[in-house]
Amino acid sequence: RDINQFEENGIVVDADPLIINQNLVYIEQWTSNELDLSTLSSPFRTVACSKDNLPAMTSNNHFLLIDQYPNLCLYDKQLTLLKEYPWEYDPIPDM
Description:
7% of the residues lie in helices and 20% in strands. The chain contains one helix and four strands. It is mainly beta. The chain has one helix at 3-9, and strands at residues 57-59, 64-68, 71-75, 81-86. It has one domain.
């Protein structure tokens, strides 16, 4: 669908809660010395974010959506800003 349709009509989301059986999940203890940060490649591109609060973000195979309060920002795969929407409500804690 065309992104302009979302601006005009809004988006309705009907989501059921995710129920996780605690007996099926095991989280191993992790220590910082297990990860060698020097093996990571240099960043492809960076997005400036506020240092005051950590931005909520979500993505799919094509886009990245970041809550950069007071705006919602939509980026493509190359981290080019496609759209910036004013967000007049409370900050989004998680996506």
